[in-house]
Structure formats: structure tokens, C-alpha cells
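cron nightly-structures :: item 1 of 1
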Amino acid sequence: MEAISPSALFGYTAAVHGLLFAFGLYRMTQRAPVPAAKQEDYVPVPRTSPAIFEIDPRSGDCEDQPEPGVETG
């Protein structure tokens, strides 16, 4: 900053952001979009309660997890 000037900081950050923007555009052209068939709906579930198995509709897919409301032991 002593060699150029303190105002060069703004030019430097603008150049870095411009390069990141250009790289993002480049990457978007190099990768095919994700097909809609592979995407699932977002299901918000809490991570702090064992009641998550009752809330999460995917909980029946796991064989090692008991069904909600079923006593084990």
C-alpha cells in the first residue's frame, strides 16, 4: 500500500471480485445443470429431539431405525 497508495485497496478488491465473477460465469458454462428428477423437496427437521423420526417422512426408509411409536427393548 505504500508503493501504490491506500486508494489502490478499492481497485484491488474490485479486481478480485471481477475475477471471481468471471470464474463463476466460466464454471456455469462448463457443468451441466442438475436434472430436476434428482432433486428432492426440502424437509426442515430439528436436530435436537428424538421426535425427529416422527416428523421426518424419510424415517421409514432406514431399516436400523425403529418405527415411530414402537417400543424396543
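cron nightly-structures :: done
The radius of gyration is 25 Å.
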